[in-house]
Sequence to fold (104 residues):
Amino acid sequence: MPLKRPEPSLKGLTADEAAELPQVARWFEDSASALFGAEKFNYIAAMMKDPIVHFHALPRYSQDRAFGGKNWTDRFWPKVATLEDVETTDEQLDLLVATYRAPR
Fold:
């Protein structure tokens, strides 16, 4: 069951709320691998501003990827990923969402 309430800490999740995480991770990793050739995955739970448990899921790549008219480089490969601002247009984000949602 997805989390539908404010909860700022992992320790506050019920077993039912936490049970979906492996299913979501499987979908994300399978999708990112099939669509973009992701090689590894990092997950960061950085809940500094949002009052709800969530993860930043980061597909990792040893080589550049082209998508949405831009060349994407994993600058930190093979080290731990960091969260940094990346210039991304609304059109690129919309295309990314549509690509993940498209039937395969």
About this structure: Residues 10-101 form one domain. The mean pLDDT is 92. Residues 21-36 form the longest helix (16 residues). The chain has one domain: 10-101.
